[in-house]
Amino acid sequence: MQPGDVLAVCLLCWSCGVRVAAAVHRTDLFPYGTLSGDSVLAEGDDETSRVLSLPRPFYFYSSLFVATNGIISAQDLPMEKQYVDDGFPTDFPVVAPFLADIDTSGGRGQIYYRVTETPSVLNRVAQEVHRGFPDAKFTPTHAVVATWENVAAYEEQSRTSGPSNKVNTFQAVIGYDETDSYVLFLYPEGGLNFFGTRPKESYNVEIELPARVGFSRGEITYLIFSRTEGPHFSVTGDQETVKNLNHCGLSLLSIPYSRFQQQCSQNSFCSDYATGYCCHCRPGFYGNGRHCLPEGAPQRVSGKVSGTVTVGSTPVSLNNIDLHAYIVVGDGRAYTAISEVPEPVGWALMPVAPIGELFGWLFALELPNSQAGFKTTGAEFTRRAEITFYPGNERLSISQTARGLDDNNHLTVDTVVSGSVPFLPPGAEVTMDPFKETYQYYPSVATSSSVREFSVVSAERGSESFSFQLKQNITYRDCRHDNRAAAPETLQITMERVFVMYVKEERILRYAITNKISPVGVEPTGPELVNPCYAGNHDCDTTAQCIPLEGQAFQCQCATGYRGDGRNCYDVDECAESSSSCGAHAQCVNLPGSHRCQCQSGYEFGYDGRTCVVALVCPLRCIFGAHSAAYVDECSSSPCHVNARCINRLGSFQCQCQPGFDGDGFYCSEQEERPKTHCEHHRRRATDSEGNPIVGAYVPQCDSEGQYIPLQCYGETTYCWCVDQDGREVPGTRSHDVVKPACLPSVAPPTMRPLPRPDVTPPTNAGVTLLYAQGQKIGALPLNGTRLDGTGSKTLLTLHGSIVVGIGYDCKENQVYWTDLSARTINRASLVPGAEPEILINTNLVSPEGLAVDVKRRLIFWVDSTPDVIESANLDGSGRQTLFDTDLVNPRAIIVVSSAGTLYWTDWNREAPKIECASVDGQNRRVVVSDGIGLPNALTFDSSSGQVCWADAGTKRLECISPDGSGRRVIHPTLNYPFSMVYYRGHFYYTDWRSKDSSQFTDEYLPDQRSHLYGIAIATTDCLSGETGVRLELRRFKAQSTKWFPKRRIILKVAPLCAV
């Protein structure tokens, strides 16, 4: 028998069933091709299909994607280099009939796919399932058929070798109904002629990675898949192994749901009732038991909006545009923002506040004897609403599906709108009066019906009155085993301070509503409810719960997972404090207000959803064949380097260099042992022979290169301070607070790969650009209006051995200026192609940080945080002088307002933090702010209001104040750990420092990240009056008032880049 004649598909089981049938012929494949209604995937090496929308969800998935490389996924796939040469499990849910590096370029095969309800297909799926699982009661309602026909492996051709003519044909069929799903893999005789592909990054190395077959469950909590290995195996072309495989050509996998459907949240407990089990949230949390959130903490919602809306007679399509909501649970205020809304429909959707009302109902301020919607529905439900407008009788349908909590405990809700709405003139304003709505509650559904009135004022038509009727129902999964007699049958929600707005310039639609829920007939403003907790006018932190006492007295209590006095609360890192609920073999990931647990490789959650147990794996045999499947040991062929060891795993293998060698395992070179550093010697002296700390000794923390980590702490306590490169404490940085000091490194990070020459690569467009500093480079991120344009982001300068912190821009000469903390220099470079960096000042600098450029007076200003001075010089480095060298402890940010000739700077002295100002010549020094601040890292100037603004890593607030000390206001009350900030055209941009351990965010806008983001400047050919921001601060807030509306988040792995 030849290796390509047949492939035996015998998988490993994981509490799910796998059955394998006898060999199949090509005529036994399910019908496929364009005549069968299939779509055809584009030719190429790494193509992904358009979204395959499912008429009925495949469990909670409503769409699938088919990819070139032999896989089907429930989410849009990353680039192939992130998964195709790696082993299982993948980081995303995947069904893999033959995962390998496949290439259909040049007509080398076709890939077909479709979703079907054809009776003949469904009947055959049912027959195959019943043959493999005789006891299964399965009648599929839908099937997904994907076929790879005569596809080839990726090959790099040379002059002496042409393409091999080996091609493969295989098919995957997913059949499912409301409760069960089965996957069939079909491999016809002679259909498999290659069994693996060579990795692109090591193509010249004679190694072939075997294809993988099976499924991986990714990191989707509560859904079908979780982050453990699903049943899979690796394909091999070894002659003896193929002979030992039995003659099977069809495999069948059963994907179970039952173990996930009743799984409780890690913040809940399970109760046993007479008829079954139910989940209930633990004290300090609320929800339906399957999903629990910390009480008092603000909540975020994200999702997509799609559909077609007809405005007048013009249909407008919405294609997966972003929706974000932010709810301050303490006062019931819900903010909703929908981005990229085209202008015709943006004005017309202003009255459709019910889109955002859902979030107000979920997290409404609770009056006595009532409960908000999230306690009923949890994070999985469907809301359907029908709106009829009068007098025109236009009808609009809204469908909103909640798909659970993401990795950050944020609710995910997708919205589909369809129908027609009345035309509203551009520039119109919509006002809606407060109103009440009564919800009727039944098992698994809540309903309401109401009539609303609203007014439209426009320049064209004056004032007009309209109304609409709303009918809605919200369906969810409840647990009927507990006693629900005490649950209310009706509740009343009161919606006040309804604010709707469409911003034409930004194409953003906004809703803001204050929501209170109470028993029917209870007036939220009655005399018995004057307590500030019920009125929503208390001064508790947004992450705190307001607890009413007698009369108007109340108490603020930080939400579970936060710590403080209730008026100022800080996130508790349960992972760092070893107070998590994660057990053995689990990794703790900190989240705002909570944490989550991830099982280590080879383990999976047990039925309690917390304990990690060994993944159940057991070999099965082909039930229609006569021979057992053979386990493939890839290490037997010695694929690794001679100085590496091969680690065999289920379905894959890993090459690992031996101790004393470096490399990827396929090539290993001998390490050159470096001498011990000062930090490593210090650490060795403070530990005993077994590496344990000597009692009472301080053990320094060293990085991977043996250098002192800038932030040092005493053991597991919160006593922390900053150190220089020699381990000496930086004066004024010692702290015993929960918020640790913001320490900067003094040694440049190691170079991870060859760096290009340090000459300038200018931005791709001539518009407005954010110049940002990050470690050894200066990058550019274009702005489209005020929105971030990630497609044009690029690196302008790469500076080996540098730590670029402060950055400024001279719009007259098109030059960027920066401070280098590692080289202890101040530098500049022209933003023209090929320009070389120029050192301006390289003497008597120790720790230069913040930098500002005075375009009008042709001066630069900077702070040096070790000698504690503020200095200035001409733009060419001449005329250097010291402005201030007294009463400074830890100066950091500095800005200059050229139009007023004024300097502002921050001093984050832990004993007495402050913000000061003076004239640019060093006269009239005075304190602007000294109370109510903690760690003012970031500073900028709001030219529209004439106020100086700062972001504080201690108080977590973004605030502004007039130069005379009046008009202080809070722009944003719940930052994380801001470092620096800039203002531009009514928006603030700022950076947040987050640890690698707790950050689960993806790179979306910037290139490869290896260190914190530091400074930023606005680069434009037009000089802007007053807008001379200093630093990179990439979250975005509308700054016209204290009412702020979150927008979408764009966050990085190490330092988050956000536009909100």
Automatic annotation (TrEMBL):
Molecular function, one GO term: Wnt-protein binding
Signal peptide annotation: 1-23
Major localization listed first in the record, in broad terms: secreted
Entries under InterPro entries matching the protein: 6-blade_b-propeller_TolB-like (IPR011042), Cueball_EGF_LRP_Nidogen (IPR050778), EGF (IPR000742), EGF-like_Ca-bd_dom (IPR001881), EGF-type_Asp/Asn_hydroxyl_site (IPR000152), G2_nidogen/fibulin_G2F (IPR006605), GFP (IPR009017), Growth_fac_rcpt_cys_sf (IPR009030)
PROSITE patterns with a match to the protein in the record: ASX_HYDROXYL (PS00010), EGF_2 (PS01186), EGF_3 (PS50026), LDLRB (PS51120), NIDO (PS51220), NIDOGEN_G2 (PS50993), THYROGLOBULIN_1_1 (PS00484), THYROGLOBULIN_1_2 (PS51162)
LDL-receptor class B repeat residue intervals: 814-857, 858-900, 901-945
Cross-referenced Pfam families: EGF_3, EGF_CA, G2F, Ldl_recept_b, NIDO, Thyroglobulin_1
Cellular-component GO terms for this entry: basement membrane; plasma membrane
Disulfide bond as UniProt keyword: yes
Domain EGF-like: 529-570, 571-613, 631-669
Zinc keyword on record: no
Superkingdom to which the source organism belongs: Eukaryota
Key words of the record: Basement membrane, Calcium, Cell adhesion, Disulfide bond, EGF-like domain, Extracellular matrix, Glycoprotein, Repeat, Secreted, Signal
A GO biological-process term: cell-matrix adhesion
Chain ranges of the NIDO domain: 97-267
Ranges where the Thyroglobulin type-1 domain occurs: 676-743
Transmembrane segments: none
Disulphide bonds in the chain: 713-720
Annotated localization: Secreted, Extracellular space, Extracellular matrix, Basement membrane
Nidogen G2 beta-barrel domain location: 297-527
Protein name, as recorded: Nidogen-2
Source organism per UniProt: Scophthalmus maximus
